[in-house]
Amino acid sequence: MQDSGSSRLSTLPKELREVLEFTRMHNRWRRFETINLIASENVMSPLADSAYMSDMMHRYAEGKPFKRYYQGTRYVDEVEVRVMRLMGELLNAGYVDPRPISGTTANASVFRVLGACGSKAVIAPVQAGAHVSHTKFGTLGALCIEHIEMPYDPERMNVDVDKAVKLIEEVKPSFVVLGASVYLFPHPVKEVAEAAHSVGAKLVYDAAHVLGLIAGKRWRNPLDHGADVMTASTHKTFPGPQGGIIATRDEEIYKRVSRAVFPYFVSNHHLHRLPALAVTAVEMKYFGEAYADQVVRNARALAEALAAEGFKVLGEHLGYTKSHQVVLDVRPQGGGAKAAKLLEDANIIVNKNLLPYDPPDAIKDPSGLRLGVQEMTRFGMKEDNMKDIARFMRRVLIDREDPRKVAEEVKEYRKEYTRVHYCFDVDTIEDGKLYLLY
Ligand SMILES: *Cc1c(COP(=O)(O)O)cnc(C)c1O
């Protein structure tokens, strides 16, 4: 490990320098030297970054704006009501709770309210892209709600509507969940909502992955099609701080869910997220459509380019993808675990993933890779860049070139793409400092 050189740093204790140095190396590698294709990640704008670094990160504000259990929150309250209003406008939802500190916490709060212990929920199986919080191993299990598997059609890579409707009518669950972690094509919200409502069940739409596409109007807003409540992460296609959110048009659901967020699942809601989330919401209002449009174009372009390079890309007969994701079957290249590691050695960061036809226990070495283009889109990449990325991937996984050689080229390539787009051009340190404490 090399020292970063400053003489003042070298006077610090070694155990401190180590931590700082690892952090610096992480920042340099992941921010400037790699092509990041993790589908659940993104970066904030420079302005949102600087708004994040505020004194609010040290404070408590249990309760709701202007009805807190602590003093000293008058400006936090003002920011939080603006977050609620801005996110409500973007999602066309009258009621927003931004306090869940993650998408999982948002799901926990909603599941807890809609399903009592011992009740049933109909949700897609894990191989079909369900999130761990949808399963007996995660939040659903912790709340002792039974997971009834939603019928899934691997051929169409989507919920099997006819079978799903029948199952919901038969099982009469407390709630149904749509939305997923592997998510190429929009789920049939309208049909499933009608079936759920016909047996008195609620429909939860988990928009963790596609929140930014919904805000940018390139993905159907589930609330327009009958979903009762939407949960999401605020840091995947929505390029905000890591956190969660709940949105609904149903006042009754909002009131009950809010009483579950605090005090069941959140005490302090990590207040420094709020200004950064508000900044991102305003950016999405002005630039979100252009961003989301380029994201879906890039995903399609990456899928087509990878297929042309000889990869097995899922969903060819369906046009590959309508989201930010592309899914590959890399069994011919040695499987998901091996492929993901080789790409990492080449400075291309992806994650291995179960494919719809994998057994659930193949989780350590699944057949697939899941790719997302949203972050590289934020850094200004377009369709032609997707062809270059596909070529890098072919050289590593099909031509079996030395990944370290490709890594050097990726590092060089990335140098042109380090500025965040689709945000206000307030990106000098001086401008940023207006909002910074330090
Ligand atoms: C990522 C994800 C979540 C929540 O993730 P957090 O890391 O807790 O924000 C929930 N549901 C789905 C479908 C997801 O992909």
Automatic annotation (TrEMBL):
The keyword Transmembrane helix does not apply. It comes from the Archaea. It is an enzyme of class 2 (transferase). InterPro entries: PyrdxlP-dep_Trfase (IPR015424), PyrdxlP-dep_Trfase_major (IPR015421), PyrdxlP-dep_Trfase_small (IPR015422), Ser_HO-MeTrfase (IPR001085), Ser_HO-MeTrfase-like (IPR049943), Ser_HO-MeTrfase_PLP_BS (IPR019798), SHMT-like_dom (IPR039429). GO terms for cellular component: cytoplasm. Keywords: Amino-acid biosynthesis, Cytoplasm, Methyltransferase, One-carbon metabolism, Pyridoxal phosphate, Transferase. Its EC number is 2.1.2.-. The record marks H235 as: Plays an important role in substrate specificity. It is found in: Cytoplasm. Its main location: cytoplasm. One of its GO terms (biological process) is methylation. CDD domains: SHMT. Pathway: Amino-acid biosynthesis; glycine biosynthesis; glycine from L-serine: step 1/1. Catalyzes the reversible interconversion of serine and glycine with a modified folate serving as the one-carbon carrier. Also exhibits a pteridine-independent aldolase activity toward beta-hydroxyamino acids, producing glycine and aldehydes, via a retro-aldol mechanism. Belongs to the SHMT family. This is Serine hydroxymethyltransferase. It comes from Pyrodictium occultum.
